[in-house]
Write a structure and sequence with these properties.
The protein is of the alpha+beta class. It has one helix spanning 34-45; strands at residues 2-8, 15-18, 26-29, 51-56, 62-68. It has a 5-stranded mixed beta sheet, with helices on one face. A hairpin with a 7-residue loop joins strand 2 (15-18) and strand 3 (26-29). The two termini are 18 Å apart. The mean pLDDT is 88.
């Protein structure tokens, strides 16, 4: 299973999407849809394997979780 983490950036400019499964290590998203866009990318990228996407709040706590079983269908 791969774990994707969507974490607020320390400089307060959007969020980082972090995972060992990403070819780049991490991606950065900014703007009002930053978290939604990061989750969307992780969902698309995880379609071929079992994955958990965890969204963290500013305090460092998990505030949202998405799980995917790895089917190549639509979400």
């Amino acid at each position: 299973m791969h774990v994707y983490e969507v974490r607020p950036r320390k400089d307060h400019r959007g969020v980082d999407l972090i995972s060992d499964a990403l070819p780049f290590g991490r991606l950065w998203y900014d703007g009002p849809e930053a978290v939604t866009n990061a989750i969307g990318y992780a969902k698309v990228y995880s379609r071929s394997h079992h994955a958990v996407i965890r969204v963290y709040g500013a305090a460092g706590n998990v505030i949202e979780t998405h799980e995917h079983k790895g089917e190549l269908g639509e979400w």
